[in-house]
Design a protein that fits this description.
heterodimer, A: mainly beta, 7-stranded mixed beta sheet, 4-stranded antiparallel beta sheet, globular, B: mainly beta, 6-stranded mixed beta sheet
Chain lengths: ~110, ~110
Amino acid sequence: IAGITQAPTSQILAAGRRMTLRCTQDMRHNAMYWYRQDLGLGLRLIHYSNTAGTTGKGEVPDGYSVSRANTDDFPLTLASAVPSQTSVYFCASSEADTYEQYFGPGTRLTVT
Amino acid sequence: GQNIDQPTEMTATEGAIVQINCTYQTSGFNGLFWYQQHAGEAPTFLSYNVLDGLEEKGRFSSFLSRSKGYSYLLLKELQMKDSASYLCAVREGDYKLSFGAGTTVTVRA
């Protein structure tokens, strides 16, 4: 059982470029989340999805978009990357009745 | 929105006990979580409190007082492997969590 996988592990991206971070879970969890983690600020929610076909905005959604075409996949897209989006990005998922969130290994993104 | 406060750093000796406090302000409380995160790794779930009182899991315990907006994580019999960041998170309403900035615990021999 893989749990949650994220790709790529790390990426250096030029400002202005488009980038999609991939997230896949095999636990059949209904809810999925994208967070960014910055030093001193902790984990901040970017977007979330309570079930396939629905998405919602978190605390810091600007500059990011998501889609949830099926239960397993929840990609995060940066349409035009800016240096302030340099961060570590974590994808997570949870089942409705336990609420415990399981995190992927993270993607370290540097925008230059 | 939520304000979640926890100390930035704590240091303790191997074998000792450390208590990490977390205070929060929320308009609709629906559970408090503690996660552990080792450097360079993903957060992993430690505990969940939704009712007042103490939840014990081996060397780790978590306490909640909803009326005071207060929780603590107690780590007993500290081991070197417990050196990590500990994240307090509050759920408000549906599945979403709001995290504190984390407390870095350093265990010294």
